[in-house]
Specification:
- By secondary structure, this protein is mainly α.
- It has two domains: about 40 residues, no CATH class; about 100 residues.
- It is built from seven helices and two strands, in the order ββααααααα.
- Strands 1-2 form a two-stranded antiparallel ribbon.
- A hairpin with a 6-residue loop joins strand 1 and strand 2.
- Helix 5 packs antiparallel against helix 6.
- It starts with a strand and ends in a 24-residue tail after the last helix.
Length: about 200
């Protein structure tokens, strides 16, 4: 603490803060606050230390991912959608199909009418009902063929140079579903104008 000067007469105190900071046993850093200590303890508690804790953490992550995916299927949030539904091309295909009326949406009501008419026992009415069903099937096939050509044309105009492999099947599969059964849920209404770009 005291050092003799060159004059040799008196000892004067010398600042040894730097020396004490480097001395053995010293921290060399400020003491963490209570808030910082609690945050560090929480971070350590989150790290799984055993196989059981690791399995529990993985299960919790899978559950959270499933919840986010189910919510995204309702809202159309791109980040949490499954891989087969991700990307601007798939989003455009969904919107294009949902913005057009599909003949398949008449199938369930038509089938109910045919079943009711079949119970009348009148062969003439039954034959007309069967003819209506056959006509509906022909219209569905025509609608799918027309959808295929329209989809090809729209994709070539909106996404030039982008691979369109599997897009026709994706659009047709969605078109063959009733509107309320489609997943992800429809985000546009029938007849709604689609945005010019999906990039």
């Amino acid at each position: 603490m005291f050092r003799r000067t060159r004059s040799g007469s008196t000892d004067q105190p010398v600042n040894t803060a730097a020396e004490s900071a480097d001395a053995p046993g010293r921290k060399g850093r400020p003491t963490p606050t209570r808030k910082e200590a609690e945050a560090a303890a929480r971070a350590r508690a989150k790290v799984p230390r055993t196989r059981k804790e690791l399995a529990a953490a993985q299960k919790a992550n899978r559950s959270e991912s499933s919840t986010q995916m189910r919510q995204a299927m309702k809202t159309g949030e791109e980040r949490y959608l499954p891989p087969r539904d991700k990307g601007p091309v798939k989003r455009f295909l969904r919107d294009y199909v949902d913005s057009h009326f599909s003949v398949v949406e008449l199938m369930i009501p038509l089938m109910l009418v045919v079943l009711l008419l079949a119970y009348t026992g009148n062969p003439t009415i039954t034959s007309y009902a069967n003819l209506a069903m056959l006509t509906a099937f022909v219209l569905i096939i025509f609608d799918l063929v027309r959808l295929r050509f329209r989809i090809r044309r729209e994709l070539a105009a909106r996404f030039p140079g982008v691979s369109t492999k599997g897009t026709t099947f994706y659009a047709m599969t969605r078109s063959l579903q009733m509107r309320f059964m489609r997943m992800p849920k429809a985000q546009v209404k029938v007849g709604q104008q689609l945005p010019p770009t999906y990039r």
